Amino acid sequence: MADIAFLLLIFFLVTTEIVEDQGVLVRLPPWSDEPPPALKLNARNVFQVLVNKNNELLVRNEPSDLKGLRDAAKNFILNPRNDPDMALSPQNAIISLKNDRGTSYETYVTVYNELLAAYNELWEEASQSKFGKPYVDLTDSEKDKVRTEIPLVLSEAEPTAFGE
Amino acid sequence: MSKFSKYKGKKPMPAISTASLPDIIFMLLFFFMVVTVLRQSDLKVRVNTPSATELTKLEEKTLVNYIYIGKPSPQYEALYGTAPQIQLGDKIKKETDIPLFIAEFLNGIPENQHNKVTTSLRVDGDVTMGIVTDVKTQLRKQNQLRVNYSTKRRSDDL
User: Count of alpha carbons within 13 Å of B133, Cβ hemisphere only?
Assistant: First the structure.
């Protein structure tokens, strides 16, 4: 009996795998053949992040690193001190991400993750102060309210052809 | 000498009963049957996904389409070289084969669920963004806009 069970066990060990089906879920913009219309954006509302082929960051024209990115993004979106160089309001804030073709995927995902984390933290804070409960416990309409107040606008530019 | 000396007793030690062994093994078997799934495709590329914190779990496994990108495993290096390759299903393909691959996948699921399909990109962390962007462009052209960058969970700070 035990032999048969062992046989089955080993068969399952060999033919199956434990899946880790989790990751950063994103929504790609639809494809259009025409180039996007040139928008006139107020420079103060754009949080530009460039990643080059050496995986170095340029955040709003200042060399930066991954550690400070999340807080810098949060500070920019919320702009608690009404800095004239930061977003007019969270609704106006736009995050622009651009990388080279030679940027490593790991760096790209980490940067993307940090920017997403900035928004997730802001939503969490807004939800705590407005409704007094964590964001995950909100109803759909309450989540909508939080998200219209702080909308996630993350625009990805076509990468430049460096480093390949 | 000692009270516990094994030479003192006359009876030999009884053998440990193995009657419960099948039960234990069956328990292990059921555990593995529940937590694992059948391997869908043999990986021909090496994929070591990066780690992230803002994770979403993919709910419906039947509505997930996988695309692997990475360097060929050692035994396939002679065939495909060492540059990163795209694996669709269980074959190494070009990014121009993606439209057909997606059409085949959509064929197998009901039409009213086509907009719920997620494409899971399982990409090695060392791959450069060039090939990933090409794949993303193909997905956008095929209107497959729900994309999951498959990652591991990271618990520590950067």
Answer: 18
Q: What's the pTM?
A: 0.81
Quickly state the pLDDT bin for B8 (edges 50, 70, 90). low
Residue among B76, B50, B52 nearest B129 (CA): B50
What residues are paired with B152 via a beta bridge? B51
Element (H, E) at B57: strand B56-57
Spell out which residues of chain A touch residue B36, defining contact as CB-CB under 8 Å: 12, 16-19
| Among B117, B127, B142, residue whose Cα is nearest residue B69 | B127
Query: Chain A partners of B116 at a C-beta cutoff of 8 Å?
Result: none
What is the count of residue pairs from A and B with beta carbons less than 8 Å apart?
Answer: 155
What's chain A's average pLDDT? 87
- Name A96's bridge partners: A48, A155
Angle of helix A105-131 versus helix A140-149 axis, rounded to 10:
110
